[in-house]
Give the backbone structure.
Amino acid sequence: MQRDPEELFELTQAAPEVAGAPLLHHLEGFIDAGGAGRLLAEHLLQDYEHETIARFDADRLIDYRSRRPLMTYENSHWESYETPDLTLHLIHDAADKPFLLLNGPEPDHEWDLFTAAVLRLTERLGTGPAIGFLGIPAGVPHTRPLGVIGHGTREGLVTGSQRLPNRIQLPGSAAALLELRFGEAGRDAIGFAVQVPHYLAQAVYPAAALVLLGEVAQFAGLDLPGVDLRVATERTQEAIEHQVAESQEIAELVRALEQQYDSAAQTEGLLADGEEVPTGEELAAQFEQFLADQQKPPEGF
């Protein structure tokens, strides 16, 4: 029995005029070191005017027993229930240019139908390229520029970012499958992965979100100043420096990473803004370790 992708979403209003508008997407549940992708999505929704134009069927896509929605108990009764929300937002940048943001929990079920639904919806709206973003843990210090690895559905899309030349297998994600399906349909899609210091991977790290904001804005041609993220970055960097100064163990770790970083920059050259691209084996191991650490209580920062 053939399933209809349009069963998974509902337009909340008549299709707006968004022809050519870029589609940004971040789905929570996969790797996102430093909360980089989540912070960027939250920043866009908090700092710019937006409206919901489509909703996906969370009851069908989300496993509530693995990610239980929050409920509020007040005195002698249940007061509220936070319904999972997987939505497509229409946002306007500082110059009033429209773009879209698909945001919410990563589907647990029906990835093929979900990605087909996103393709169907964006075809109906006539949107432009799809742009995903997240953070990955890397052996880099917070005192050096953060590198960004880019990947796309065709040659020429990734120009200013580092490229990962290896052929590797990694745990899959709905966002990665969405990029793959866009490419199979002959449509442009790109992903940005900012390299977050591994000792900050479990923390909230606004500096990584700020780097992603710059990459996304440049590729999509959007005016996104990011003032709040810059302020948060400065405050976080100050707090990190304070903790580094108080811990000899952390200070030695940072110095070792700085020496490794600087040595690589001098002897081997760097491909873009920072640290050299890790090997496929190193990246796969980092992904696996990060996903395993997600099940543990936060440590350190």
Notes: The two ends are 51 Å apart (CA to CA).
